[in-house]
Amino acid sequence: MEAGRNNHAGLKGYRFNPYTGIGDILLLPPTFTRDGRLRIPAQQPHAPRNAVRVEVKLIGTRIDFLNRRVTGSDAAVLEIDLRKPFTGADLTIDVPGTGTLLVTVQVRTFFDDAVSQNRKYTAAEIMAVVEDYSPVSILMKAHQHKQLPQLLEDMPFEAEYSVIEGFTVKRE
């Protein structure tokens, strides 16, 4: 992973569980749109045969890296009943504030009311990194630079000067 100062986009795709990714459970990958919506296509999630449901959690966290603080967060949860066909769904988050938005998707498999302790059926990864670009305008004032002959004319001295190949020489 290549991420660092002012390069937060490198966090995209980071797996919190190195053994299992979202694509190992949700065989058709979800997509995140810029308006804060996670679209999960219709599919049958990969789970052990005695599992009863799969929980998909969309977590949005807005972080101001410059001031080192979390400025907002939101989460949405969807439970997919594995005994019924899944027709697809959308999850939405709204995280106001300033800073970079990290969008994390967590998928967990449940047996009755207990979450699976098998790392093959639990996954979480950073799905998107949305940078907060605030418009910064830099106003630069153009200075008119005086040429050497003009500088010589503006000098308050009474002595005579002459220009020789870019150098100023005072005559005595």
Task: Give structural notes.
It is built from 2 helices and 10 strands, in the order H-E-E-E-E-E-E-E-E-H-E-E. By secondary structure, the chain is mainly beta. Strand 1 and strand 2 (37-40) form a beta hairpin. The relative contact order is 0.20.
Write the layout of secondary structure elements.
Elements: H1 22-25, E1 31-32, E2 37-40, E3 53-64, E4 69-81, E5 89-92, E6 100-111, E7 114-115, E8 122-130, H2 148-154, E9 161-164, E10 167-170
Antiparallel strand pairs: 1-2, 2-5, 3-4, 3-6, 6-7, 6-8, 9-10
Salient structural properties:
5-stranded antiparallel beta sheet, mainly beta, 172 residues, 3-stranded antiparallel beta sheet, 10 strands
Give the helices and strands as they follow along the chain.
Answer: HEEEEEEEEHEE
Radius of gyration: 30 Å
Distance between the termini: 70 Å
Uncertain regions spanning at least 5 consecutive residues = 135-140
Strand content: 35-45%
Helicity, as a percent range = under 10%
Shape type? elongated
The biggest sheet, with number of strands, parallel, antiparallel or mixed sense and barrel status, is: 5 strands, antiparallel
The whole-number mean of residue pLDDT values reads: 81
How many helices? The count is: 2
How many strands in all? 10
Overall structural class, as computed from helix and strand content, comes to mainly beta
